[in-house]
């Protein structure tokens, strides 16, 4: 398993490097710059700003300087938030985003797998049709539609939960954003678990285990669950991507102090270093989740670990 992990890690690092390189040049190819205004600055002031941030140098020199600083863990200064470095901005918002995303993914996995198993064990029953119909609705409704609707019902009409805002260690402020983010991946996971479980339940080794008199819950837990979760593991990276992209809008709607707002504002303001820092963080999380999915594949199916 250690050798397999090192092989996957060796492929993940060059992937992150390619993403950093492409993002660096693409963002500078876009029209405009970080110091453009509706009213043009005097040429001398513009020249001083360009010189202060190294933007007057050739782009290859800027790239080499950025990669060198990145190797020391320095994301550089923000062009728009003058009193903060990119590292400080990410340090302020990343814990909120990670908490929101981790809870949303955990909720989606726990409920999605449970609902999928429930539907598979009641195949072609009214309960199966009802749960899968709700799953289709969950897939069709995006997070930025679900959150205002949940806020209207549970915040405005029922007064049970706050519609927006953030308080550290407050579960009440997490509920609506987490549910809105978790709904689409939860629905996908439920359908994938149901399909995987139905396929496994019709396998010969499952029929043999049942014929030997093993209780159904034992058959599910010890024999059917691991192979049935293989499709779910394959969806982990897209699920994280869905939650991360959804958090960009959810954090803005709910007024959460996460890092999603920095990515949006950085792109609008041509804040090169801030956008680069956010892209690196998001890419590292996605690549890391892909690595976790590979390891889970190897754990669920040892043939993957020894495949050439």
What keywords describe this structure?
77% helix; 308 residues; MetI-like fold; mainly alpha; 14 helices
Textual characterization of the structure:
By secondary structure, the chain is mostly helical. It has a domain at 93-267: MetI-like (MetI-like fold, Orthogonal Bundle). Helix content is 77%, strand content 0%. The chain has 14 helices and no strands. It has helices spanning 2-29, 43-52, 59-71, 86-121, 126-140, 143-157, 171-201, 204-211, 216-228, 230-234, 236-254, 260-269, 272-300, 302-306. The mean pLDDT is 84.
Number of strands: 0
Helix coverage percent of residues?
Answer: over 70%
Based on CA atoms alone, the radius of gyration comes out at 24 Å
What gross morphology would you assign? globular
By DSSP (H or I, 4+ residues per run), the number of helices equals 14
How many angstroms separate the termini?
14 Å
The quaternary state of the protein chains shown equals single chain
CATH topology of the domain at 93-267: MetI-like fold
